[in-house]
Amino acid sequence: MSKDNTPKLPPLPDDGSRAEAGRARREAAAQALRDQKKAARRRRVLVQIAVGLVVVLVGVGITVLALNSGDDDATVAADVPASGIPAQVNADGAYVTGAKKPKVTIQVVEDFQCPICQQFEQVSGSLLDEYISGDVVQVQYRTIAFLDRMSSTEYSTRALNASACVMPAGEDVWRRFHTALFANQPPEQGDGLPDETLISLAEQAGAPDSVASCITDQPYRAWTASTTQAAFDAGVTGTPTIFVNGTKLDAFTPDVIKAAVDKALAK
Question: Cys bridge to 198: 162, 187, 220, 228, which one at CB 3.0-4.6 A?
């Protein structure tokens, strides 16, 4: 007999085996769908995290920009040294005008609320202006604030603080403001000039608009108290007091001042 070479096919699975295979395929498909959904959720979460980080970083950037942007008030604050002492005053707390390398130094101790200081400026102010315009005499204005009790608003302190606020604007501006304060000196036992008037006088003298917040915020208030006390500790007993090369004058008329200066120059 010839040999049957027809390939033998595997037997068909029975109904039970076919059902099992179908379940396996359905389970595999379901698992694949679940995996896809999990992956999609992970992608959504990652996108949300990324967006959140971007929002946070943008917010931080805006905050830093706002902190660093500055305005006029920040500029004024930056002009006030950390010590709270005006950068333009010398070791005595005096604002220096006139000769940079003087042969003679005149120191004038004043209070902006002092009526006799106002009289001194009216009588001797022009002589001091002449000295300031030259190159041999230095005039140092050592303003103090001890007459707060003579007003209801601590005008001496507020005026001296305003003077310090104007100092960064330069000597010419400060001198105009100094003159304006005495020309507009308020009466004793009154309210004193309001801040709005001090600001107006400062701006008319040539100070920038930013001087307004300095005058109202009074960043030099503590300095006005300390420089006043230092003057009294150094022997000042009232205002005006005039020193020529460190020697206290008995009077403050133009003739007395000129005689003292001429004597000092002759040495």
Answer: 162
d(CA 155, CA 239): 16
Contacts of 92 (CB under 8 A, 6+ apart): 107, 140, 142, 230, 231, 234
32 with 144, same domain: the answer is no
Q: Are 158 and 195 within 8 A, CB to CB? A: yes
- Within 8 A by CB and 6+ apart from 208, the residues are 169
pLDDT for 86-113, tens place per residue? 999 999 999 999 999 999 999 999 999 9
Residue 9 token pair: 């096919």
| Cα–Cα distance, 213 to 58 (Å, whole number) | 32
113 CB neighbour count, 10 Å cutoff = 30
**Same domain, yes or no, for 144 and 262?**
yes
| Three-state DSSP state, 19 | helix
Give CA–CA dist 203/207, Å, rounded: 5
Q: Do 103 and 61 belong together in one domain?
A: no
Average pLDDT, the chain: 82
Residue 263: half-sphere exposure toward Cβ, Cα within 13 Å: 11
Domain, as residue range, for 22: 15-69
Same domain for 57 and 141? Answer: no
**29 domain-assigned:** yes
Q: What is the pTM assigned to this prediction? A: 0.71
Instruction: Check whether residue 209 and residue 252 sit in a common domain.
Output: yes
